[in-house]
Amino acid sequence: MRALGGMELLNRRYRIRAEEETLLLPLARPPSAPEMERLETLEPSATLLKAEVPRVVPRPTLLDALSGRLPPHLLAVAPRSIDHVGDIAVIELAPELWEHRALIGDAILAVEKRTKTVLAKKGPVTGAFRLRGYEVAAGESRTETVHRENSCVFYLDLARVYFTPRLSYEHQRVTLSVKEGETVVDLFTGVGPYAVQIAKQLRDVKVYAVDLNPAAAEYLKRNIAANRVWGKVIPILGDARKVVRTRLTGIADRVIMNLPSEALAFLDAACLALKPQGGVINYYVFLRRGGSTETAQAEVADAIRRAGREVQAVLASRTLRAVAPHEYLAALDLAVK
Asked: pTM of the full predicted structure?
């Protein structure tokens, strides 16, 4: 279901239905051959068939709850998307809606019964720890929660660590590309969404999970215990470059670099962490107005060359999501020799 959602294949206007030992998942369109191949990899029993399933009765939306309580010009800029992290809803408000944040927060609690807290973003992600400010708009006054993703449990505090639920599909995509027996270095691990999922879904793997933020390191240890992956995930607190130089030189089959604002500056450390014969780098970058994945590939290839390595192949190149007007997050999977 998560994979179908990530590929925009799941038709949420119809109900999922169980029929004896078969689960019927309604599709929005016929999957392409590569999409079907991926689905069959995830679930070998997956097949396409025609069946009648009932429509979903629409639940009240946030706009329904706000209708009549906000004037039309403000209703037009009300939040259309909400990030759900555990039982916390995170919203981004237009400046003209800030004074109405409590009203909007109460409306969210009214239509989303499992949400206990609504946080309003107070600014952009900043600093070495990638944190942002929040204000409680409604509900319980807290920023800590328990988030579930791809069969894993993550304890975290949004005010003290970086985390986004919007990369759930990407976490799973990278996890599925890891092979048994690999050693992985996750250079900017946060609370461990890559490291923990890789360790939980593969039997024979070792992941060195590095982060500079002491709070992230503490939550990572908690998440390692909660998901029972002690010994498979090795938590390390420290600067990525120093840690690689002193502890992780030449050990990795794969390096994950989810720090799109600064990853380019750490490519030398990633190359140093790879085994002498090479490996894979999962690299993330922001593409700004006029940028492209091709431009990013050339920039990365040049930096890797300066580090004494060579890009052998671009295994995957994809734009993931918009992060701001005219700015996108992109992922590059690089085979490096």
From this structure: 0.82
